[in-house]
Amino acid sequence: MFTHEAGSRNKEGQKIMPLIQLLEVLIVVGVLLWLVNRFIPMQSSIKSILNGVVVIAVVLWLLNVFGLFHSLSHVRVGTLLVGSALIR
After folding, report:
1. DSSP code for 70
2. pLDDT digit string (tens) for 24-72?
3. What are the DSSP calls for 38-79, one per residue?
4. What are the strands, taking DSSP E only, across 1-88?
5. C-alpha distances in Å from residue 77, one per residue of 6, 38, 58, 70, 84
6. Burial of 15 (0-12, 13-18, 19+ CB in 10 A)
7. CA 48 to CA 50: how far, in whole Å?
8. Whole-number Å distance between alpha carbons of 72 and 9
9. Beta carbons of 2 and 17 less than 8 angstroms apart
10. How many CA atoms are closer than 13 Å to the CA of 42, on its beta-carbon side?
């Protein structure tokens, strides 16, 4: 039915995630978050933190799926001084 199976790879050996599967994951995460927000009683501040963590995790996952997160791992912010060695 679909041209790509889950976990299939392209010519370079990279994993391919079909758009349908990506949308299914986003819908499932959204429905689960809605169910938690709707039916589990908790303080609004905790709900806000939970929503923020889930949104950040989904954004990072999407960046990784589209291959943009790997390039962000090379960005350095500041320097770290350990003992007498300067690490950049």
Report:
1. H
2. 999 999 999 999 999 999 999 999 999 999 999 999 889 888 888 776 6
3. HHS---HHHHHHHHHHHHHHHHHHHHHHTT-HHHHTT---S-
4. 80-82, 85-87
5. 36, 39, 23, 16, 19
6. exposed
7. 5
8. 23
9. no
10. 13
